[in-house]
Automatic annotation (TrEMBL), chain A:
One biological process term in Gene Ontology: post-translational protein targeting to membrane, translocation
Keywords for the protein's UniProt record, in alphabetical order: Membrane, Transmembrane, Transmembrane helix
Source species: Lentinula aciculospora
Residues spanning the membrane: 6-25
Name assigned to this protein: Sec62/63 complex, subunit Sec66
Automatic annotation (TrEMBL), chain B:
SUPFAM superfamilies given in the database record: TPR-like (SSF48452)
Protein's name in the database: TPR-like protein
Keyword annotations: Repeat, TPR repeat
GO molecular function: Hsp90 protein binding
Top-rank taxon: Eukaryota
Region feature (Disordered): 1-30
Length: 173, 242
């Protein structure tokens, strides 16, 4: 005669194993480090390399310029993260991508926050009060550079337009 | 480094807490999360570079170039900024954007006015020379200044240059300049107007109408654009009938 313990034991084994497996699986997923969203940060590497030079130590103008370039790169990354995030979330909802990519993005976002604070502290170490100004400066420099590039490429644009118009010659009176 | 703004017993601070002072008090910046700082530091890869003898430029270690495609390094912009800082030793850091160099605006404006004078006298070669000079001065503006100024100055000068090319019947150059103006300042009606005029000069009437419609999309109530649109449409009808 089967005792009443057998079905009870069966239930305990089934649910117990489900619980144990899900516990270990969740622990494993949580501890998995997401893939880096961005590849290396060349401007940051440049800045730290310059900072570490002692023989001879880098001149301060160069260090400050390197810090500003680092700030510019950070601003561009933050803009990219902000653009990519809603798109990724939509894709995730539709099921086109796994959530690994979103985890990478969120990790990158947190890392950027730390990076920005770090840059502000470094800026303050040069000149007191520079920290809050360096990022607006970076914004202005990005716009300035875009305009400068457009202007310098006017010549190229001229050559290109000329070629295009002449190749379309027969259609126009 | 930033000082902590605590008033705990035993911590002294240098500023007093009187009535609000004109300059902003330096706030204590938060320190970054150490876990992420560790990630950042782990990500560090040293770069092979060297400082040039003039103490202001960076070059790649192996080829001694500012912009080296072999090493995948481009220090042109960094060196430009560091040269500007080196030339102004009293400038300890790029100031906020509202600190502007007035002489530059003055110079650009004067050169532009000279160009306008030549334009009115129909001396277009001199006018073009002046406008080009004004544009190159405008581009010399320190990059940390509010970009609105450079945007307006540069777009005005190039727009005038485009008009000058149009009057000298060099429609292709006029078109290239108009495209530049639109790329710099998209919502300005004059840029689209100049582009349409250049296209009409080249005989591409439908493209001119398109350009005018784009301009009107940015500024729906612009009288100049609407009037010119009607002109061009009239020209097209006239062209079809003849």
């Amino acid at each position: 005669m089967a005792s009443v313990l057998v079905p009870v034991a069966y239930i305990i084994v089934v649910f117990g194993s489900l619980f144990i497996i899900s516990f270990y699986y969740r622990k494993q997923t949580a501890s998995r480090i997401p893939e880096p969203y961005f590849t290396s940060h060349p401007e940051r590497n440049t800045y730290v390399t310059l900072l570490q030079k002692t023989d001879p130590p880098t001149p301060e103008v160069v260090l400050k310029s390197a810090l500003v370039r680092r700030a510019i790169a950070d601003v561009l990354r933050v803009m990219r993260i902000r653009e990519d995030k809603p798109a990724l979330q939509t894709l995730l909802q539709k099921g086109s991508v796994g959530d690994d990519l979103l985890n990478s993005l969120l990790a990158a976002e947190k890392e950027m926050e730390a990076e920005i604070i770090e840059v502000m502290n470094e800026a303050n170490s040069f000149v007191d009060g520079w920290g809050p100004i360096i990022f607006p400066t970076a914004n202005e420099m990005i716009a300035n550079e875009k305009m400068r590039v457009v202007f310098e490429q006017t010549n190229l644009l001229l050559i290109f337009t000329r070629k295009k118009i002449w190749s379309e010659g027969p259609e126009h009176p | 480094m930033s000082h902590s703004h605590s008033h705990a017993p035993g911590e002294s601070h240098t500023h007093s807490h009187g009535p609000p002072q004109p300059q902003p008090q330096p706030q204590a910046l938060p320190t970054a999360d150490p876990a992420f700082l560790a990630v950042i530091e782990a990500d560090f890869r040293p770069v092979t570079l060297t400082v040039a003898a003039d103490n202001t430029t960076l070059l790649c270690e192996s080829h001694k170039l500012e912009k080296c495609s072999a090493c995948n390094l481009d220090y042109v912009n960094l060196n430009r900024l560091s040269k500007i800082l080196a030339q102004n030793p009293n400038l300890k850091a790029p100031p906020p954007g509202n600190v502007i160099s007035k002489n530059l605006s003055q110079a650009v404006n004067n050169t532009k006015e000279e160009g306008n004078a030549f334009y009115k006298m129909h001396k277009h070669r001199e006018a073009l020379g002046r406008y080009t000079m004004a544009a190159s001065i405008a581009v010399q503006r320190p990059p940390w200044e509010s970009n609105q100024l450079m945007r307006e100055e540069l777009s005005t000068v190039i727009s005038n240059r485009s008009a000058s090319y149009f009057e000298s019947e060099d429609y292709i150059s006029a078109l290239a300049d108009a495209e530049t103006v639109i790329a710099i300042r998209r919502n300005w009606s004059k840029g689209h107007f100049r582009k349409a005029r250049a296209l009409v000069g080249l005989g591409a009437l439908d493209e001119a109408i398109e350009a005018l419609q784009v301009g009107l999309a940015f500024e729906p109530n612009n009288a100049e654009l609407s009037a010119y649109l009607q002109d061009v449409q009239g020209m097209m009808k006239g062209g079809r009938q003849s």
